[in-house]
Specification:
The chain has 177 residues and is an alpha+beta fold. It has three helices and five strands, in the order αβββαββα. The model is unreliable at 1-46 and 48-53 (pLDDT under 50). Residues 49-69 are annotated as: Disordered.
Length: 177
Amino acid sequence: MLLVTSRTVGTAVALAVASALSVTALSAVAAAPAVAAAPVAAGTAPAGAASAATSAPPPVRDEDRPGRFGDRLIVTVRHAGPGRDGTYELLCHPAAGTHPDVRGACAAVDRNTHWGSEPFAPVPEGSVCTMLYGGPATAHVTGTWAGRPVDARFDRGDGCEITRWDRMVPLLPNLGS
């Protein structure tokens, strides 16, 4: 008979389990040669095994890998000043397009692409931002990045928006902080 207690309920719960294995069978199992464990399918763990990977992020999906789905962005910049305003096409992986700094712009977006987060996400609602004004410049970025549609607007209306803009330089022009 096997006695199992549970602490999750706060009281001891005893379960009587009749054993179908004889002492001979248990001895045979203990004497058997070790067998290599079969590979575990992604996202599953053996029953009763505590996984140290539960705090690790899930594996990278194909759609999160750069260059798999034709990364193409159209960047429209307004009120940034002469030589900075305009509409530019950016293709990455491989780098091409009419953007003034194709390789730098692709590197900026790659640098800000992380699994589980959106590189073009707006400033979260309720963020506390400094009351800085970075000027009238605006940008609109559309297209596809890492297999996902992009439709993002940028401005420099407060400290959070300035930081968000600066994080994407040179995709967006460097206007200083």
